[in-house]
Design a protein that fits this description.
The protein is an alpha+beta fold. It folds into 2 domains: 138 residues, Probable inorganic polyphosphate/atp-NAD kinase, domain 1 (Rossmann fold); 124 residues, Sandwich (Tumour Suppressor Smad4). Helix content is 22%, strand content 36%. The strands form 3 sheets. A 6-stranded mixed beta sheet has the order 2-1-3-4-18-5, sandwiched between helices. The mean pLDDT is 92.
Length: 273
Amino acid sequence: MKAGFILKPKDTLKLKPLFLNVKKIFESKNIDVLLDLVSAKAIGLRGIEFEELCRESDFLVAFGGDGTLISVARRSYKYDKPILGINVGNLGFLTDINPENINDFLDNFLKGKYRIDERMVIEVDFREKKLYAFNDVVISKDVITSMINIEVNTQESYLNTYRGDGLIISTPTGSTAYNLSAGGPVVYPLTESFILTPICPHSLTQRPIVLPSYFEIDVKSKELSKLILDGQEIYDLDDTITIKKAKKPIKLIHRIERNYFDVLREKLHWGSK
């Protein structure tokens, strides 16, 4: 069995001792460790190109925080490999395995005592190519002082024209990210839907809306704007894009004991006295 590691891109060198310790644990369980070339160069080790890593690995390991896992999920999407998140970041909504409990987790993993969650992915038709987002697609104004008008249509009818700083189209996984900060709802991550949340709308009547995942959504910005995928990829937008549910989900490896509502209570301090 082979595990393909991708390390958190920021402060990667500081993670080297921790990674080497985790690598030793994996290898003690007869799991070969492959390392992404960019990560390897940052810590002075040998690695292989990301595309080869995805082809050669049985599963991928995002060694960082939620941002690292989201990047790995989007970049590796076409290879359909399950992803394990080891949390060495701050938030940990998606990465629920900590380095100190990796030994126990791997013992259970090798016995088949784990689960795989399948998470919806957004597909974007943009300039005759397909782009993918795990968390969200954001249409944002290009100039700080301006306001943009974003027209949204579905296959059923014209929906709305949003006037303000922009629009977030989120997956349920991304509902606790930018969507939540902008006043959107928390949506259970294993459901399938689109959450549309306006960013600083010009009118107080502009409210978030949840649409079924079988909808195809045409989004047109009437001014030059930015198309942002997962907060990590940015494109100039001056045309209509079509958003739909991608054909395949992202597969995340989790502990059997993981409970989403426990995560919400911990991260959002729900139920605190």
